[in-house]
Design a protein that fits this description.
32 strands, alpha+beta, Zincin-like fold, binds tryptophan, 26 helices, binds zinc ion, about 900 residues, five-stranded mixed sheet, eight-stranded mixed sheet, Immunoglobulin-like
């Protein structure tokens, strides 16, 4: 039984540091089974506190001196998480030597082994597992780092900053010294040692500085890094042009590692990446892998200014760097690709992950006020919703105004550790705005709902538009104040043209966009001189992260789908039609009634497919909303009814649009397979969407199998295998077998093999997952492999919530097992239980038992936080 609940930390307890570390010198002696870390810190007292408390976990202290004299053992104390020195001088040099054991480090925080190499992950609090230190982001210092290791096994020794010195040592060892001229918090420290392949390139900045670019990967993999290199150069150029930001060291290094808990890490001058976000070639990586690499390479690069040069005061401010940097990487992807399609993809992602988080037991504001584990702050809310809040700022002041604000932010705060409020103030000051109400987006959790009511008077030719906002309760926040919601708006005439909107409450920003500000709980606008009822296009580009509740007619939605000049809202109109139909079909399936597929939806999709327009947009429009979004619209999660409804609609689309789908498929299949042009990405996406629907029809499995065998690139092979994975055809096994035989030595591709099976909607998926856990190729210590199997399964709503299978028990046992050696991975998996409060009674009881069992299992504080919050949510299941 768990006795001691982990301790919570609170934003309101923030105090500035009592000591400053003016200079850090680290010396690492790496051996196979241990590492000795010698640290020399120049320390100065800032306040009046006498004792110095340093963070440190799992460190074996071998030596401690102050100003080179041994520090008596009576004057220091070691606890499991700290080292306290009593009554230290005002200014002194502290030397410590500790022994650590990277090869026994299974949680992949601090210094650890990934295959034959050593690497680090310090964000947020891994540095304290390396040496005793003031491990907090507002403690910034200048680092010099020397790494010594066996020269044969570890010819490459890397750390942050510039290479300063290299020398050979006795016994076949060597050492390299790195100097980082910029002050930084410890979470940006990095070290890599190994025998790695590398590719080189360079970038010349706008002030003509030549930067050496180096990307390292396990030997033999380096040729797969060229796409990442191109992306890096594009990102460097873009940040110069769009935000005037220049790179500041002489070299920029990226290292790909196979074992990594998250996606990538922006350590100063030495990014460490999950290899799935660096390595790519057309036969092994899909178009979306290429896209993700581009966006994450850019994301980590952009952190050099938003995160590193200007950093965080404390971890509650995480969205200051993450929201802003996600916003920047999204803007980059939109500028180098298709704006509308990238926007649609981001919104889709936001709705699936963040909206569901915001409606569940782990809902929190983008600036949280308390937590058990700082590790748990890395959420879709902090990242994706944080980016939306910044996007609203940009919408309100327009791009030029936003750029002015960013310039002011950098000039005010370069080299400092600041807060979210500091950022908002800089953008507001540069644009003479007052954003008191807007700041509620930082402190209030939950997704607001905006309800739309329309009233057209044909006699007076007037149109009333009434908007009401509300936001349901979140844990710890029952009542909420009204948000400031900037809604981009347009009105369409029957011929598809745009009404020239003039209204005192509709503002035009510096980009000519029309904005309606909703500040109050309710607002009515009156528009005159409209000879016909206009069709409303609200929240264009998804300018505000809200749910729109709008009883539009099918006719109006079809009108938007066909004519809206805002591509986002064209797509949105299709999604609303599909959502409405799916919800009705689900209810019918649940009640054992039958109900028809929406003819309006079929007609709309038919038209979209028939008109040659942007193929990527066509593909997005043809895709139905995801289950995790649909669940948010329903009070009870009946997984079998939901999946019956989806299958019925998909079949309906496949049958109804058969001819066009076949034509589309034939036209596009096999064209330009090696082109990396965004237009060809879109064509392939459309073609594979057609294949997806065609695979439901007679002969569909053969078609998919044919594509599987003839595919020249992974995009096509994976799409075909995915279609087969959902089918009951005997070709399914054959394809899976062939795929595995072909790729058994490529860990990244094999992850796809696991993921496709875990995401399949067949009834047998659960028993497949159970078997795959014991598969020879499964490796429970590799986060990518675990996510491919378990995270994918947990997100597979029809199968994870299949009431006929003991899925929750199995999943809980695996989480308990993984939590013992890697809490961050276990925590991420436990999020799949967040939907449990919506389950029907019996199923809910069984999920509840699984959660209780976890809670009794002496969990890490990370997993404890998620599981205990899920259990507490029982009485307050929020619905919209
Ligand atoms: N700062 C990283 C990013 O957003 C995130 C990250 C990398 C991370 N590794 C992590 C977060 C480990 C938590 C744990 O780019
Ligand atoms: Zn980031």
């Amino acid at each position: 039984m768990k006795t001691d609940e982990p301790k919570k930390i609170y934003l309101q307890d923030y105090r500035p540091p009592d000591f400053e570390v003016q200079k850090v010198d680290l010396h690492f002696d790496l051996y196979e089974d241990f590492c000795r870390v010698q640290s020399t810190l120049r320390i100065r007292r800032l306040g009046t506190v006498r004792d110095l408390v340093l963070d440190g976990i799992d460190l074996q202290l071998e030596k401690i001196t102050v100003d080179r004299k041994p520090w008596p053992s009576a004057r220091y104390h070691i606890s499991p998480e700290s080292l306290t020195l009593d009554d230290v001088p005002d200014q002194f040099t502290l030397e410590t030597v500790v022994k650590i054991f990277p090869d026994k480090n299974t949680d992949l925080e601090g210094l650890y082994r990934s295959g034959p190499m050593f690497c680090t992950q310090c964000e947020p609090q891994g540095f304290r597992k390396i040496t005793y230190y003031l491990d907090r982001p507002d403690s910034m210092s200048q680092f010099t780092v020397t790494v010594a290791a066996d020269k044969k096994k570890y010819p490459i020794l890397l750390s942050n900053g510039n290479r300063a010195e290299q020398k050979d040592l006795p016994d076949g060892r060597h050492q390299v010294t790195w100097e980082d001229p910029f002050k930084k918090p410890a979470y940006l420290f990095a070290l890599v040692a190994g025998d790695l392949g590398v590719i080189h390139d360079s970038f010349t900045t706008f002030s003509e500085k030549k930067i050496g670019l180096e990307i390292y990967a396990p030997h033999g993999q380096q040729e797969r890094c060229w796409h990442a290199m191109e992306c890096l150069k594009k990102a460097m150029k873009w940040d110069e042009e769009r935000f005037g930001r220049e790179y500041d060291l002489t070299a920029y290094l990226i290292v790909a590692v196979d074992d990594f808990n998250a996606g990538a890490m922006e350590n100063k001058g030495l990014n460490i990446f999950n290899s799935r976000l660096v390595l790519a070639d057309p036969i092994s990586a899909t178009d979306s892998d290429y896209f993700n690499i581009e966006s994450v390479i850019a994301h980590e690069y952009f952190h050099n200014w938003t995160g590193n040069r200007v950093t965080l005061r404390d971890w509650f401010e995480l969205s200051l760097k993450e929201g802003l940097t996600v916003f920047r990487d999204q803007e980059f992807s939109m500028d180098v690709g298709s704006r509308a399609v990238v926007r649609i993809e981001s919104v889709n992602d936001l709705r699936q992950k963040q909206f569901s988080e915001d409606a569940g037991p782990n809902a929190h504001p983008i600036r949280p006020e308390s937590c058990y584990a700082v590790d748990n702050f890395f959420t879709p809310t902090i990242y994706e919703k944080g980016a939306e809040v910044i996007r609203m700022m940009q919408t309100m002041v327009g791009r030029p105004g936003f750029r002015k604000g960013m310039d002011l932010y950098f000039s005010r705060y370069d080299g400092q550790a600041v807060t979210i409020e500091d950022f908002a103030q800089a953008i507001a000051d540069a644009n003479e705005q007052h954003w008191d109400q807007f700041q509620l987006w930082y402190s209030q959790a939950g997704t607001p709902t905006v309800t739309v009511e329309e009233d057209y008077d044909p006699v007076k030719k007037s149109y009333h538009l009434t908007l009401r906002q509300s936001c349901g309760p979140s844990p710890g926040q029952v009542v909420k104040k009204p948000f400031l919601i900037p809604l981009l708006i347009g009105l369409l005439r029957k011929d598809g043209s745009e009404v020239n909107l003039r209204h005192p409450d509709v503002t035009v920003n510096s980009e000519g966009q029309k904005i309606l500000y909703l500040r109050d709980p309710e607002k009515t606008l009156l528009f005159h001189d409209l000879p016909e009822k206009p069709v409303l296009s609200l929240n264009r580009q998804f300018s505000a992260p809200v749910h729109l509740q709008w009883r539009a007619t099918d006719e109006e939605l079809l009108h938007l789908l066909a004519y809206d000049s805002d591509d986002f809202n064209r797509w949105e109109a299709g999604q609303i039609l599909a959502t409405q139909n799916l919800l009705v079909l689900t209810q019918a399936a649940q009640a054992g009634r039958s109900h028809a597929v929406s003819p309006a939806l079929l007609a709309g999709l038919q038209k979209v497919l028939d008109n040659r327009s942007d193929p990527a947009l066509q593909a997005m429009i043809l895709q139905l909303p995801e289950d995790s979004y649909l669940v948010q619209m329903q009070a009870v999660l009946h997984a079998p009814a939901m999946s019956a409804a989806r299958v019925q609609l998909e079949l309906g689309i496949a049958n109804g649009l058969q001819t066009l789908l076949r034509e589309t498929y034939e036209n596009l299949n096999g064209k330009n397979p090696h082109s990396r042009d965004p237009l060809d990405f879109g064509r392939r996406h459309l073609k594979n969407t057609a294949l997806f629907y065609l695979s439901f029809l007679p002969g569909g499995a053969d078609l998919a199998f044919k594509q599987f065998q003839q595919a020249k690139i992974m995009t096509d092979r994976q799409a075909a295998l995915q279609a087969l994975c959902d089918s009951e055809s005997s070709l399914r096994e054959q394809a899976l077998q062939e795929f595995r035989d072909q790729w058994k030595n490529d860990t990244l591709v094999l992850n796809k093999w696991f993921a496709l099976q875990a995401s399949s909607r067949r009834r047998q998926t659960f028993s497949d997952v159970v078997k795959l856990w014991d598969h020879v190729d499964f490796n429970k210590k590799n986060p990518n492999r675990v996510y491919s199997l378990l995270w994918r399964f947990g997100e597979n709503i029809p199968c994870f919530h299949d009431p006929t299978q003991p899925t929750y028990e199995f999943f809980a046992d695996k989480i308990i097992e993984i939590d013992r050696y890697n809490p961050q991975v276990a925590t991420r998996l436990s999020g799949s239980f967040n939907l449990w409060v919506k389950l029907p009674t019996t199923q809910k009881a069984s999920a509840g038992r699984a959660l209780q069992k976890m809670l009794r299992s002496n969990l890490s504080k990370n997993t404890y936080e998620i599981v205990s919050k899920a259990l507490k949510a029982e009485d307050m299941a929020p619905t919209i």
